[in-house]
Records
---
Amino acid sequence: MNSKREQVFVWSGKIRLFHWINVIAILLLIVIGVVILNGKLFGVSTDGKVLLKTIHVIVGYVFSANLIFRLIIAFIGKTYERWGKMLPFNKGFIAELIEFKQQKKLAYKGHNPAGKLMVLALLSLMSVQMVSGLVIAGTDIYYPPFGNYFTQSIAIDKDNLAVIKPYSKENIDEVSYQAMRDFRKPFITAHVYSFYCLLFLIPLHIIGVIVAERRERSAIVSAMFNGYKYLPKDEIADH
């Protein structure tokens, strides 16, 4: 590294842990989701589809817990863990964005303005995925946190909920079941389209990191492993 650069601690252990759990969970969810969406093409049986959906939901719980953890940290954390340092809503953001466009060599301790916009987009889409996914899990394979509510709503015999299984019509009132399916349609639409948007944004995010690294030369990638950036002493934007 250049002698005019200094080692600056930016990303806490909590942020790095969230990031890599999120990467692994999303990759697994994408792979399983693609197989589920193309079940007929891959020749997946009904039992196989239930198994895939079960695994998808379990990974989804990890994804959701991790995301909720990150959102909580944004309220109670320190410095670059907080909302003000990660989203494009701080006072003077427009000026910050203009400065970013004009000064190509400027390095940033936290996210640069383009990075903040990307974080906003990714967090928004992941939140949609989380909420819609939990509702779908409850209406499809009757998993928590909403599964018990939906099984109660569609059961003929409320005292015999254990027999209600995915893709089975036993103990199910057809009218109530159809009402549940109608209720879940917008959640499926939101889940699928936010999934497609994530498929578009994730490569864009990776390209953005590569471009930012070439532009700032501050060890952005390694910083997400060890927490440290290497920043020029005279050209640091503390945003």
---
Amino acid sequence: MTAFALPVPPMPSIAISGSAERFAVRRIFCVGRNYAAHAREFGNDERDPPFFFTKPADAVVDSGTVIPYPPLTANLHHEIELVVAIGRPGLRIARERALDHVWGYAVGIDLTRRDLQDEAKKTARPWDWSKAFDRSAPCGPLVPAQKSGHPTKGRIWLAVNGAVKQDADLAELIWPIADIVSICSRAVELQPGDLIFTGTPAGVGAVKPGETMAGGVDGIGTVEVTIGQPQS
């Protein structure tokens, strides 16, 4: 039995809808600019190929969590997303077989320190500090694909304190789920436990301490988190 110098950290995981079991999270990949309107609102070309960035696995937190307002930012943004959970390994997965590797789906929020991201873009530096921070990937319960099917359309939305800010349809995805899984697997060998956040629609905006975000995807579920005060 392997001995470790320090206590082994808890395994990051997300809830599974209707089950006492949890889904262990291995890695988190995120797709940038995968809705045309969102690409345009940031001055980008929606015809660009998809690109990916990452978050640490322990960035996931459950729906219902109070998330302290993160440090180093004065412009924390919400980005509602459909999340794909991988259940089978695969490298260079063919598009027509990509959905066979999907275990299930959830609703997530890609929290973004927008001011840090804007600075990173200006200086051509990595996005890590703007995306890969503590508790930056709240995620609702995972629904097995055998129950939900593989969604190709349906409302995706997010509200802040009850006011709807993002409201679109999964049919507006530039790169559908099968494409995303296939393209991601060209760069890395996907493994069970990997999550892919599939991109956010237009309407992203700032949230402040005390505000609650609630969002959902038709046929998949919802996620809700509150932004708390900064940690002292």
